[in-house]
Amino acid sequence: xxxxxxxxxxxxxxxxxxxxxxxxxxxxxxxxxLARFDGHLEGIQNPRVLLSPLMTQEAxxxxxxxxxxxxLEDVLEHEAGQGQPEEQRKREDVEEIINYRTALTYxxxxxxxxxxxxxxxxxxxxILMDGVRxxxxxxxxxxxxxxxxxxxxxxxxxxxxxxxxxxxLPDLLDNWExxxxxxxxxxxxxxxxxxxxxxxxxxxxxxxxxxxxxxxxIFLHDKGVLSSPTFYAxxxxxxxxxxxxxxxxxxxxxxDWEGWIRYFLTAVEEQSKTNSAKVKKIADLYDETKDRVVDxxxxxxxxxxxxxLFERPIFSSVKFQELSDIPRxxxxxxxxxxxxxxxxxxxxxxxxxxxxxxxxxxLLDIVGxxx
Length: 371
What we know:
The protein has helices at about 25-40, 45-50, 50-65, 70-80, 90-110, 120-130, 170-180, 185-200, 210-220, 235-240, 240-255, 255-295, 300-310, 315-325, 330-340, 360-365; strands at about 315, 345-350, 355-360.
């Protein structure tokens, strides 16, 4: 008879005995790549607007790791006023993705007002789970019962991981929060440890993976590593999902922190390179678009129009007017000029009470293709 699987109790932080000496070069390269990415960010006048689709794509990919199937286009079309997708599963997916982005924005805003805390973590969780699958599982509160991780409807005996008992959470989370606020020799190594420890503690009934990934840009900005909290790592983690979970499992089963840290540093370095290339392309596209639109449109609202295209690259005529805050007649005149100048493409004509739908394809080609 095999022994019943037991809950894993993570060791207190900081982790003792990690040999960073053998990975110094990797630590340096990851920090260099992230610094180069931040340099691109600092060269953008309004990263919040220009990189808005990248934030939405991060929400899409991070949610995809947990099993959602909706795409960037599904989310943007919904926000353009096209209504919910017909398929119920996809409707739920879109709602979860929008919640993820809202929780990330909320966390960034609150961090500008007060230090990071476990209360902020719970507030973000409450937003993440609002009105979606899992909303009745102690939304915004730490769990009060034992759980196990495994296939749907699986028993404890079939669990791939059993987090610590709920009565251990106060001490574990207090230690985790204290380590968050501590000063260490390298913030990327510290972040790797924080992310893994959070996933092993698994403090919520649901949504732990997404909250753990939300913390990545928030932590990097909070520690001054990034000038803007816009580093999104979920694409690499999703592409290497099997290794992502295996490396986390190796910590609880074998104490292999070094293997996890090496993996996380590789994720940061590779994602930094990808993000840098995308940010540069977006900045170049903004300059090119500005030159084209200035030639096509003689208006005091030119910059407002361009910013609206970059913030929401799929939009209706009504949403364009709302987002840009341009007077109605002027916004329609600008849209006609942009369409005639091949800056935007109309993908659906107005019909009845439904306004025309447009797409700014060059931006979607950078962030994610429009299908």
